[in-house]
Amino acid sequence: EVKKLTAVNNINDISLVAQVAVFHNKRAFDTLVKKYQEPVRRFFMNQTLGDSQLSDDLAQDTFIKAYINIASFHGMAGFSTWLYRIAYNVFYDYTRSKKMTDNVDTSVAVSVKSSGNDSSGMKMDIYHALQNLKPDERTCITLQLMEGETIDHIAAITGISQNTVKSHLMRGKEKLAFYLKQNGYER
């Protein structure tokens, strides 16, 4: 049943992509944006540890690049995998241009604390827990636990081997569990 739904979803996405690529149908692209805007933004929110302004900017860059490069989508993977690959590259380019290290930039952490739009302590604890992960671990954890991507899709998105993805997931989950347990959350 889930496979049928996924197949129908992929056919709908491919149909929309074809309309955009062949006929430059902006409404078809708007449909794709509406469908994937929230997951892509959520992916960036987790990567930036809750910086909503930066997440919005990176999501916008992702959709611009997707629109410009839509003809390069060949349907070998699902559209969402292709789109997350673009999002991953946008974030990678951003971090490389800012020369961010594995340590989180303090301005990101400060903006998370000062953005009053999310008063949930749990969400802040998740961002703080994610802060303890290496960037590749954070990406793999975000894609699997928060976006529901499979290991093979994560490998396709990141260009990391499946075994390395599994290692990042294992280490990331251990670090998250340790951090959350240290901060009063039980399994």
3D structure, described in words:
There is one protein chain. The protein is mainly alpha-helical. The chain has helices spanning 2-23, 26-47, 52-68, 79-98, 106-114, 121-131, 135-146, 151-158, 162-182. It starts with a helix and ends in a 5-residue tail after the last helix. Mean pLDDT is 85; it is low at 100-119.
Question: How is this structure best summarized?
Answer:
With 187 residues, the chain is mainly alpha-helical.
| Total of helices | 9
Report on the biggest sheet: none
Estimate the mean pLDDT confidence: 85
Number of strands: 0
The coarse silhouette is globular
Q: Tags for this entry?
A:
187 residues, mainly alpha, 0% strand, globular
Map the helices and strands.
Blueprint (H helix, E strand, L loop, with lengths): L1 H22 L2 H22 L4 H17 L10 H20 L7 H9 L6 H11 L3 H12 L4 H8 L3 H21 L5
Helix pairs in contact: 1-2, 2-3, 2-4, 2-7, 3-4, 4-8, 6-9, 7-9
